[in-house]
Amino acid sequence: MADMTSTRSTAAVTRSGQASAIGEKAVCTLAASAEAAPKFRSFVRAAGTRWNLPGEAEDALMVIASELATNSYLHSGSADVWLMLRNGPEFIEIEVADQGSWKRSGCGSRSRFATHGRGLGIIDAYAASVSIQRGLAGTRTVARVTK
């Protein structure tokens, strides 16, 4: 069962005069399964629509959420995967965490024709910054996408 919540903070007015929920967060916890990636994409799209994000930023966040959910499912062994979005003034921050023990599968390829092992490279291409923390408590990835 999905646990999806949202917290509200202050609203600001953008240059176009539309309200933007700066400081707002949206959180979703799902079972780490093949269904997590499309559910996270839907969750991100709903938050992007609610926060009036630019289309390019929303698309980038959807790709990042999908890649990280898939990595968690394929590589961590975690039962659950957790996603949080933070709406900042210049960036949207996406954080994905699990409680598994992530292991590199060895399928990463530098070939542009590879069909597996390109997820972290894709995330790097979409994000302004990425940090990955692996430890006994699981894996936590934070990426920032420019608005």
From TrEMBL:
Q: Has UniProt tagged this entry with the keyword Cell cycle?
A: no
What Gene3D superfamilies does the annotation carry?
Histidine kinase-like ATPase, C-terminal domain
Give start and end of each Histidine kinase/HSP90-like ATPase domain. 31-142
**Record key words, sorted:** Kinase, Serine/threonine-protein kinase, Transferase
Name under which the protein is recorded: Histidine kinase/HSP90-like ATPase domain-containing protein
Which species is this UniProt entry from? Kitasatospora arboriphila
What does the record give as the organism's lineage?
A: Bacteria, Bacillati, Actinomycetota, Actinomycetes, Kitasatosporales
